[in-house]
User: Fold these one by one.
Assistant:
Number 1:
Amino acid sequence: MTAETHSEPAALTTRDLFLVTSGRLASTTAFRIVYPLLPFVTLQFNVGALEAASLIALQTAASFVSPIGGRMADKYGERRVMIGGLGLFVLGAIWCSLATQFWMFQLGYVLIGLATAIYMPSGQSYLSARTPYEKRGRVLGIFEMSWAVAAIIGVAPLMYLIDQVDSLRIAYAILACLGVVNAFLLLRIPEHRSEHRAAPISTNTLMRRPAVWLILAFAFLTFGGNDLFFVSQSMWLKTGLGADETTLGGLFVIIGIAELLGSSAVVAFADRLGKRRSVVYGFIATAAMLLVMALVGTQWWVVSAVIFCFYVLIEYAIVAAFPLVSETVPHARATMMALMSVAVGTGRIFSSFSSVYLYGLGGILLVNGVAVVVSMLGLIALTRSALTPKR
């Protein structure tokens, strides 16, 4: 049983939204840059491609500590946990900057992954608690825009810098400095914790509710299902359509723009259309794009157009899912968002193992076909949960 908080948190200000969102930019940049950085890492530390790819696995595995961060946020306050997460990030970025051996760089990325896993649910909970549900799509949509913005103003300039100086040190030193600045700026936002606030719902109590498991099944199946395509995408474009590295690089610029449009669409439309409707129809439209994608042939402009539409739709559906889930268990919001992060991470781990196997068996048609089936099962789970808001 839980008690209500006796004093309502103050309404979210534009300044607070900006500071919480910008606080995520440095860690998101470090999270995203590892993908294009892998070839450089293999040369810098003289390791194989599979060993370098362990950095991605370490980042993903860090999502399993999210419930600890969510529990701490519910108990001690989201602002404190966000600042603590940025502290971990700064340590990780400094460690990466000083790394002379690959195991040191891996350790730095463990800290960066932990920082991201802790900051995300705390930030989502902080913004959700201070925003009426009717307006939450706009607010969390702006928060999630930092994912796309990080690729444009973070990853691209740092990759250029790394290429020019032929070193990782200065890039991660810059990220560490940004993390310190972000942490000090977060001291300016209010905590708004009530002295009469009861202990939050425990994770064990939440996990005994079947409706919670259905929400987590949605995250595991729908996010993980679509990740099947993400993993095989480059192989399909390179081996199936003959794309070279320059073409792939240009395509990922298009993808970044599409992601920004998708999250911007949530800001503009999700509250008016309804978060539940946005998620359901968004993922259905995404599934349709996956099927079209497998049948469009080899004309590059057609493939590019379909991929662009896919990324706009998938980003819209994913971003709209966060405000929807934020209202499922309001008195344990940070913990619930953290559990969702674990479910998403688990789904992505399964996808990373199975996607390459499926591609070898039946190419992109099989990969996308399985992705559609799995993600639709996830939508069924979402609609069957009694905790899912009706709008």
Number 2:
Amino acid sequence: MEKFSPKTQLKLYGLDHLRALAILLVLVFHYQTYFSHPLWTEWFDTIGWTGVDLFFVLSGFLISSQLFAQIKKGNSISLKTFFIKRFFRILPIYFFIVCIYFLFPFFREKEALPPLWKFLTFTQNFGLDNEHFGTFSHAWSLCVEEHFYLFLPLILIFLQSKNLFAKSYWILIALFITGILLRIYIWGIYFPSGATDSSIPSWSEHIYYPTYTRLDGLLVGVAIAALNQFAPKLWEKISKWGNQLILLSLVLLTVIYFFFAGTDYSSSVWGFSLISIAYGLLVAGAISTSSFLYNWNSRITTLIATLSYAIYLCHKSIIHIVQELLTKSGVDTNSSLTFLICMVVCVFVAWLLNLTIEKPFMKMRDKILRPKKPTANNGLYAIGARPTNIS
């Protein structure tokens, strides 16, 4: 997850708050869905799953901001540099967790794993049978992001080479509309009589998980980055309304909560788009210098944001193991105390993973991408540039 840095502030505190919010939503949603839980957590059943969509908007904004910054400077996008950054940021800890899942069955929160090749090729989200192969199912969203990381720079390079970048917003609009049309088509094929409780696994497989139906959030993030980078005068006007954008986002999310958060036709077709737009407004507000989120520095949310990827990868297995141990000790796993213990352990394990895997590989990445020092023979630096303030 990249860190985007505007000229006015080295660190965007607002995005840390949103990362923390996103992982909190996902954590509590999965907790009440898959494990013993206190009754109060069931409120998250309707809205908690949207934390993934917030992550999508954040990723779309941050990754495209990095690429747009290069284009704005008139530089060509380096696929080598881009993919090295993505590799060292995403894959080491992901492969570690995959290995743990396959080598140690007690680590699994459910009985059956999808085939290993689906995890290695990031195709798990296609045809995902969460009812029978639901172990480590939450990696589906990482598959969506990996597909985005693969195709976005390729599309941008193509547009640059054909001098079509100025009209690329039409592609953005077309892709957004295509996602809606695909959901309409898929609904007509698989749910002509509507989606019922018994058809939720099929609904998830065909509408919720596939990349081609879940690009809305990423595309909204790209649109915000484009406004920020290429329409500075318009963005300056928008950013004056930071707190109002946040309030508008909350109003729209409230409407979605009551009318577009189910598995019916309207929610399936329009819900993902509306959620993405709502979170897009929230992200726009968080990066606006006039908003309270932009100026609010919190060590707690910064820590949670830093650990959010590690928490996301390991949280189901950690909750499973902790609850198993507490059950043997006679502790009520439906209690709020158990919930608190599970959350603390998740953060602690994520901190260990960050310390032992993420940070060392990030240092290795920076060393690989660091420009070579001038030699005595030619006094020239090697081609390439050290990555800017990212993580």
Number 3:
Amino acid sequence: MNSASHTALFSLALPEAWGEPIDCRGNSPGDDIATASPGALFDDRRDGRCRPLFETEHDLARIRGAARRLALITPVAGGALDALANYTFGPGFTFKIAGDSAPENLKGAAQQVLDELLDDNDLCGVLDRELHTRSREEGEAFLQLVPRPNGRCALRFLEPEQITEPARPRPLEDWLGVGESFASSWSFGVHTRLDEPATPLGYHIIHDAAGRDWDYVPAPRVEHVRRNVPRNAKRGVSEAILRRNTAEGAALQAAIAWILQPGSAETLVSGYPRGELPVCERPSPAGTGYERVRRYPPGTILRPSAGLEYKPGPLGSERIPHFLQVAQYVLRSIGLRWNMPEYLISGDASNANYASTLVAESPFVKAREADQQFFRRHFQSLCWKVLRLAWEAGRFDRFALPWEQLVSRLDLRIGTPAVASRDPLALAQTQALQLQAGILSRRTAASQAGLEFEVERRQMAEEAGGQQSHDQPPSSSST
């Protein structure tokens, strides 16, 4: 075999073993190797694009459609997303206003705004989990801030399809007061400077399919969560992972119930197989035409010509372990994207080491802690935008502070639940040594133990006062 043949076999075997990356048009790299681009091009990431993932809104729509079908129809996908949300958010994040230079009434007013935000929008336990699921499933999520009376704020999800490039941007730019010297970009519905795709100025939103009912929402009124793309990409993409060759090959074989095999050489020339399934056409993945395929629904029986002997199908008892291995491989490859232990994605606990799954050093814990910081930054941005709306509505007028000074006096702290399992006794012993050495504060120690420092101090004072009054002897009356 010559070197060219070796190269061709290697190019086919490598995707089969590791899974093919699928581009935005559904093509695999081996479909047209001769005409593939030899390297990166100047326009690959220009103006918010992210080739080879996407370069148009149509590409994004195709990715979202496939990801939604996978997430809504496949129980494994739903279970995996729920597990990720459980470990990332747990009982929910905490939102506290602090700041040594701010008076208590200012901190109380700001805390009241945040408490109203949490209560009005079910931010902890409902909206946060949907935000997580949307960002995983579709690669992005849009939260619009809608002002309400009395300086309150409602959060509304915008569908990704609503964010689209305007058909005639020039009248919109005139309405916004953007001069011709300002080079605007409206690609993918995100308004930016042409040379700054990572800094959104606003979003063009439509409310009907024709785009006649539209709106422009400035960036301070939208929190845009993007995933899996570089910073200069204007839109995010889904985390759906396809392992096409091995999985589809196994599924095709599993669809065949049994095969009837010719019993002698004479029957091999008796004619073409009878009863074959009809060939049908479906749109090609590239969207350029149709391709001829043969479908094998579950329970298919292949019937060649007469004079045959029965032969078990590919899913015969001797091959069942191989198909189970294929299924486990596909699930492990999906879980690898999130550093998930195998039992969380497959439900098979035979290979699970529970003692090492949720310790602080495990990859799964590190990945979820990184997720917490990712969402913590977005929640911080969201809270400051809500406080700004409340300030504009006059909620802080009695303090007579400009917005910049108000921000400098307040400290927004968002707490995240612990992901790793901790030994309470070992934690207490470590904290005792750190407190004795003077390298740990009591407030931090309480936070590590999952306690509210101020609440515990107040309750301890109340208990001490009650105990003291209880221990005092009753006063004797003089006669």
Number 4:
Amino acid sequence: MNLEECFEKRLLRKIEPDYEKAKRSIEVAMDKLKKAKDAFDKKFLDACLLYGYTSMFHSARALLYKDGMQEKSHVCIVLYLKEKYSNEIPYYLIQSLDSFRKERHEALYGLDFEVREKDVMLAIKDAEEFIEVVKKLLK
């Protein structure tokens, strides 16, 4: 899939820019990051991975709201960021979002997927950094 197909299939569509939703999405991202850290402290690695990814997802979604975009696909969010924000967001963070999107899917639906501590530590670190980058872009 590419970004053009996301729009053709209405997995991404234009809406009015909504700074309140963008702000709220960052607040949700920070809450999910806190929950990821709490889950890590309790060694709930699956939950930590899910919360870490969800934190990054809501950070990315804040940019879409700012730009006047509505998403219906996690894949399309990644494609949008690669196209529109590759100069503002470090590429490794966009790749991390995509990688943890796939791991989240496996953690939820896979039969043999095992979450590793080093992966969730990276998810937390990248989610923290992603939030900070997005906050600067929202100003």
